[in-house]
Write a structure and sequence with these properties.
Layout lengths: L8 H8 L12 E6 L8 H6 L1 H9 L2 E7 L11 E7 L4 E7 L7 H6 L7 E2 L4 E5 L6 H18 L3 E4 L11 E4 L3 E3 L6 H10 L8 E4 L4 H14 L7 E9 L2 E8 L4 E10 L3 E4 L2 E5 L2 E8 L1
Parallel strand pairs: 1-2, 6-7
Antiparallel strand pairs: 1-3, 2-7, 3-4, 4-5, 6-8, 8-9, 9-10, 11-12, 12-13, 13-16, 14-15
């Protein structure tokens, strides 16, 4: 009997040439909750509750569980929580004993200074949520191990980010820059570049502080002008109407660049390694620029 190898969504996405850029969900604030339990398919919902998860999405907050290692969840009597604002590039942390004390209103709207102690320095997140998708375990854990050699104090495992088909996924905070298809060899290099204030357009999925059309326009502009500094491009304006968008970006020399984009649906493909369900992802395409 011949056993058929399981489908891997990340390998399929590579074979299909699926573009990564513009695939980062628009979330300005990220809430990181320390949790060492064995994460399931719906890890955030299991720990924080369905009502909290839904409210966070409504308020535009990205909640994630993070850990340095799996362990006895009974040890999480006191746990660290970190709030990051990717628009202002601020982060704050505090220790809590009861998750019920976290409210989405505070997380989404309160001044960062009132959340906790300021947290200096970048953080790196790697999705290793294998119960959600096998690719995140296979590729994510290898990436985590590679980063741990040089950046252990800054690096955390995290739950499902979205975009498991682009594993390994690496998040750079406080900017909310997300890289995909990051190999163990790429990870330390990308982390070092981020610490030095630069990014790599070739692995870029986008930045969470910007809507998808702006993410696509940013990559096009960076490639055109050879820009690698994180602050070399700023989002000045975006207008969307249905499947059309106009994005205005400004470079460090105060020059404005305008892009007109349209969204298109790709052919359906499996949603993940663990599901036969299919979806047709939306991609934004530049149709004009000035």
């Amino acid at each position: 009997m011949t056993l058929e190898a399981p489908m891997r969504c990340s390998a399929l996405a590579e074979q299909l040439g699926e573009p990564m850029i513009g695939s980062v969900a628009h979330r300005i604030r990220w809430l990181l909750v320390e949790d060492r339990s064995a994460w399931g398919d719906k890890a955030v919902r299991d720990v924080m509750g369905a009502a909290f998860e839904a409210s966070a999405k409504e308020h535009g907050v990205r909640p994630l569980l993070v850990r340095r290692r799996e362990g006895d969840p009974g040890g999480d009597v006191q746990r660290r929580v970190i709030l990051v604002d990717t628009a202002t590039r601020e982060a704050a942390t505090r220790t809590i004993g009861d998750l019920a004390t976290l409210t989405t209103e505070e997380i989404a709207d309160a001044p960062m200074s009132g959340f906790g102690e300021p947290l200096d320095g970048p953080l790196f997140l790697v999705c290793t949520n294998g119960k959600r998708d096998a690719c995140c375990a296979l590729r994510g854990r290898a990436l985590m191990a590679a980063l741990g050699a040089e950046h252990a104090a800054r690096t955390w495992e995290c739950t499902h980010l979205g975009g498991h088909r682009f594993a390994g996924n690496l998040v750079c905070l406080p900017d909310g820059i997300v890289y995909g298809r990051v190999s163990p060899a790429d990870g330390p290099r990308l982390a070092a570049a981020y610490l030095a204030g630069s990014l790599d357009p070739e692995h870029l999925r986008g930045r969470s502080a910007w809507p998808a059309p702006a993410q696509v326009a940013e990559l096009a502009l960076r490639r055109q002008l050879g820009l690698h500094g994180i602050g070399d491009v700023a989002l000045s304006a975006i207008e969307t109407s249905g499947d059309a968008a106009r994005v205005t970006l400004t470079t460090a020399d105060a020059t404005t660049h305008r892009f007109d984009l349209r969204s298109e649906r790709a052919s359906p493909r499996p949603i993940s390694c663990r599901s036969d369900e299919t979806e047709a992802p939306v991609h934004w395409r530049i149709v004009d620029r000035s």
